[in-house]
Amino acid sequence: MTATPAWPPRSLPRLFVEQPLAADHAVLLEGKPAHYLANVLRLGEGAELLLFDGASGEWRASIEAAAKKRLVLRVTEQVRAAETLPPLTLAFAMIKRAPVEWLVEKATELGVARLQPVVTQRTVVERFNPERLRAIAIEAAEQCGRTRLPEIGEPVKLAALLGVHEGALLFADETGGAPMASVLVPGPATILIGPEGGFTPDERTAILGAGAVGVGLGPRILRAETAALAAVSLYMAGAGDWR
User: Fold this and answer.
1) How many C-beta atoms lie closer than 10 Å to residue 198's C-beta?
2) Which of 61, 48, 50 is nearest to 14 (CA)?
3) Residue numbers of the chain with a pLDDT score lower than 50
């Protein structure tokens, strides 16, 4: 699935491309993005737009040649260097498709560097579609101004995650936990969110045994996807790029 280019009103169209970008490079654009720019927005030769490739920052480009299903773009100059993302992984128990897609979109907008699906005892297992989730992340990055895409990992079992996570491990503890601001430390971090119904007692014991710190997310019971975005927001405000 190819994402539809998105951008804020009254600004240049902004598009992710797979090709590495550099000044004076030509970029061939085909398929849905080319159709959208040429036939929906009716952009023709000379029209300007912004491009990013997920690695080299953001670049200004112009349409050099236009057809109904094919555009040739000419990269002119770099307008922003690649962003530095907080080293934050959001590890989330796999839930139903629509909430997961919403979670991926919003976590991308909030600046999460890596998204890691996790299989737990209460996981609602559905078919994992990495191409679909990547397309959602691309569209969100186009809209929000990110220059790097989040990495999306293949699903792993909870025990495997506990054995390989890097840096601090923070988990949303529905039995009550410390305020997020009181446990933040510099360096990489992983936020772990459980499934609908929460972690089982055995899983909670294993999580604590792995050195995780439980954090509280307020007095109300939150849906899994709501808890994930609440935790990420608190992290970004305290240790991320919202400081």
Assistant:
1) 19
2) 50
3) 1, 7-9
51 near 25, Cβ under 8 Å? no
The structure's pTM equals 0.91
Q: Tell me which DSSP letter residue 113 carries.
A: S
Q: H helices then E strands: how many in the chain?
A: 7, 12
Q: What is the pLDDT of residue 7?
A: 47
- The pLDDT assigned to 10 comes to 56
Distance CA 169, CA 99 (A): 23
pLDDT at res. 4: 55
H helix intervals, the chain: 31-35, 97-110, 130-144, 158-164, 180-183, 201-209, 224-238
pLDDT digits (tens, 9 = 90+) for 45-85: 999 999 999 999 999 999 999 887 889 999 999 999 999 99
Q: State the number of CA atoms in the 13 A half-sphere of 8 facing the CB.
A: 4
CB atoms within 10 A of CB 125: 11
Tokens 């998204």, residue located: 115
Q: How far apart are CA 139 and CA 151, in angstroms?
A: 14
Q: How far apart are CA 107 and CA 92, in angstroms?
A: 11
Q: What is the spatial distance between Cα 177 and Cα 218, in angstroms, rounded to a whole number?
A: 9
Taken in order 33, 11, 151, 112, is the CA torsion positive or negative? negative
Structure tokens at 43: 């952009």
Identify the residue whose tokens are 């907008």.
Answer: 109
